[in-house]
Design goal:
The protein is 40% helix and 18% strand. The protein is an alpha/beta fold and 336 residues long. It folds into two domains: 205 residues, Alpha-Beta Complex (inorganic pyrophosphatase (n-terminal core)), CATH 3.90.1640; 121 residues, Diaminopimelate Epimerase, Chain A, domain 1. A hairpin with a 4-residue loop joins strand 7 and strand 8. Helix 5 runs antiparallel to helix 6, helix 6 packs antiparallel against helix 7 and helix 6 crosses helix 8. The longest helix has 16 residues. The chain is globular, with a radius of gyration of 20 Å. It binds guanosine-5'-monophosphate (5GP) and manganese (II) ion (MN). Manganese (II) ion (MN) binds next to loops.
Length: 336
């Protein structure tokens, strides 16, 4: 929960019409999109001028989210985005905890802003850039934090079907459909309330998970063929080269969730997926673990990344093969 005096200060800021920017992290996922749009739909009802500004494109599988078409994409409209951001009274940064998670160009702009800033996020080790910080790693999603934040502000009557749909999306995606350990009775109480607000939870699930292209499934097949096991480290990993991605007409979001298959194997408690991105000149990596093995630490220490104890990401500037070789060498010391 946010402190009462902070809530009072934010409420007072919101008591007159404001220009507000809401920002998710780069490569926004279901939680980043759901939390920013959920808050957007609340603040619009309160008569504020609100724009969600995403650092880059969002994946197609989230394009059905209400008013996602009104999201400003920073990378596509740098000048327009900068102009709006510079006029903002208030900036919300949601589902990330360090400005560099928006990418270099946007980070530079955000650093110059004088607007009041509010961070709401559930990742470990938040940076101290915001005027108000609601950071709590016990939450399974930023969407659930937004839900509590709205209640704390006393705006719960504004949680209509549209808001609830956005928030449910982040809760269901970040919790792996309610199976990850941070799913609590509070999560289910929150979701029960969202269902009472009129969401069609089964339909949302369909839109998110049963809406795949044929190519995406073939790509999943390829990824599973590439799955390797390192028994002595209870570890598995998957690679996808740019060539393999291209062969299946890869679209943004197509690889979402594939990493989890590596953890579904009996006896495996750590997994990684290495995805080549020739355009950015990096290997994008996702890490997942079960139990005590801290992948946030692992990603921070070895792969320029971060995240949570059981789910993190990072990147490498070496080739795909070299990156995998480095990974295996690191396992020898980090995972006995
Ligand atoms: P995913 O593997 O699904 O992309 O990300 C898993 C978690 O790690 C998410 O919470 C995400 O925000 C975080 N994460 C992913 N990539 C990075 C990264 O490059 N840097 C940091 N700091 N966190 C990341
Ligand atoms: Mn999240």
């Amino acid at each position: 929960m946010m402190q009462t005096n902070e809530i009072e200060a934010i409420k007072s800021l919101l008591s007159t019409p404001k220009k507000i920017g809401i920002i998710p992290h780069r490569n926004p996922d279901g939680d980043a999109m759901g939390s920013t749009l959920g808050l957007y739909h609340i603040l619009k009802q309160l008569q504020h001028e609100v724009v969600v500004i995403a650092p880059n494109e969002f994946p197609e599988f989230l394009a059905w989210l209400p008013e996602s078409e009104n999201i400003m994409i920073f990378e596509r409209n740098i000048e327009q985005s900068r102009t709006f951001l510079e006029k903002c009274d208030l900036i919300f940064t949601l589902d990330f905890n360090a400005l560099h998670r928006t990418g270099e160009a946007m980070e530079k702009v955000l650093e110059t802003l004088t607007a009041t800033s509010i961070m709401i996020d559930h990742h470990q080790f938040p940076d101290g850039y915001a005027n108000y910080t609601f950071s709590d790693t016990s939450y399974g999603s930023t969407c659930q934090m937004i839900y509590d934040f709205i209640y704390q502000l006393g705006y719960e009557n504004y949680i209509n079907k549209t808001v609830a749909t956005c928030l449910y999306t982040g809760i269901v995606t970040d919790s792996g459909s309610f199976r990850f350990p941070k799913t609590t009775s509070k999560t289910h109480q929150c979701v029960a309330d969202l269902i009472e607000k009129g969401i069609n939870n089964s339909e949302i699930h369909n839109l998110l998970f049963d809406n795949s292209s044929y190519n995406r499934l073939l790509l999943l097949g390829k990824a599973l063929q590439n799955l390797k096991i390192l028994d002595q480290y209870k570890t598995s990993y998957i690679t996808l080269s740019q060539e393999e991605l291209d062969a299946f007409g890869h679209q943004k979001g197509d690889t979402e969730g594939i990493v989890n298959y590596g953890l579904s194997i009996n006896g495996i408690d750590f997994t990684a997926i290495f995805i080549e991105n020739k355009e950015e000149g990096i290997i994008k990596i996702s890490f997942r673990s079960q139990g005590d093995f801290d992948v946030n630490q692992f990603a921070r220490k070895h792969f320029n990344g971060g995240g949570h104890i059981n789910a993190a990401g990072g990147k490498s500037f070496a080739t795909l093969d070299e990156t995998v070789q480095q990974f295996i060498a690191i396992l020898a010391t980090e995972k006995k």
